[in-house]
Amino acid sequence: MLQRTLALMIFTLLAGCGQSEPQKAEPEANNAPQYSEAEIQRYVDQCDKHDGKSPLEIVRACVKLIKATHYHTLDLKGLNIDSLPDDVFKGLEHVKILYLSENSLSSLPKSISEMKSLKVVHLGWNEFKEFPVELFDIEGLKDVYISKNKISHIDEGLKNINSLRRIILSHNELKEFPHVFTEMPKLKILDLGTNAISEIPESIRNMSGLIGLSLSYNDVKAIPAGIGGLENLTMLDLSSNDLRSLPIEIAHLPKLIEPVENHSGFVNNLLGLGFEEDGEEIYGVSILKGYKTTPSVSEYSGINLLFNDISSLDREFCKVFFMKLDSKVVINCN
Length: 334
What we know:
Elements: H1 2-14, H2 37-46, H3 55-69, E1 73-75, E2 97-99, E3 120-122, E4 143-145, E5 166-168, E6 189-191, E7 212-214, E8 235-237, H4 254-257, H5 278-281, E9 302-304, E10 323-324
Parallel strand pairs: 1-2, 2-3, 3-4, 4-5, 5-6, 6-7, 7-8, 8-9, 9-10
Helix pairs in contact: 1-2, 2-3
Keywords: Leucine-rich repeat, Repeat
Protein name: Leucine-rich repeat (LRR) protein
Pfam family, one: LRR_8
């Protein structure tokens, strides 16, 4: 990931060298001074993971490179970092995407709250036991990927990030459905797969903004009727639980009964689903009207019920456009 990021950075910056106007592929570079090829290469060399530097030296070199080039992505993935200096992210107000995945972090430095432009943060494959509260002061944060950690608790302060639309919390140690999510009506995608959740609260009805929900590989025994309040729900993954029945309210959710042309044959696209507004807000590239940049969420609409204890479903579920079912499930649609 780092090498691809650096290659793109070099291409973007050098594309403007020697021209009367800088190129617009990377908007943040427009306001940064122009660099010679040798200068840029020197910064890149300092950020090389394979030249014997310590992880902290690499971190500081990469931060220096991002400051100099005003690039929007900082990639510190896979450095085996277990801690970061509190001031490490000072001066990075322009960074919009941060990769800290595949390290050994259990907390974040205080200076991350100064990254006021941060939209997406990747924290998977670390040692977090709680959702990092240092993120709570970043008002524009949109997506948090924090799977494969040891999180068992989420502070109520998370609801103060009104901009959050996607939280990927799969492969953690949650034993209860975090109540704070029911107070976040603007949340669009929530992945709680592969935890140890056994009960879903009736208050889930308040999560009216959800378009995608995964509870796969948990210990859920029943789904409350309150799920009928999720009028925008399009992707529902309930596979590998202990369900014996489903509330009829699911069969009446409007987005699940809409016919879809060219359906993908899959339900869960919570990780990769893109949003058109990201072109402008994150990458600085205006999207042409009518130009399709990401797969439609409807291409992944449906319910995944595989590997449960359901023996039959009400015929109302025949209205659902796409379902993945165990062969033993009886549903009479005649």
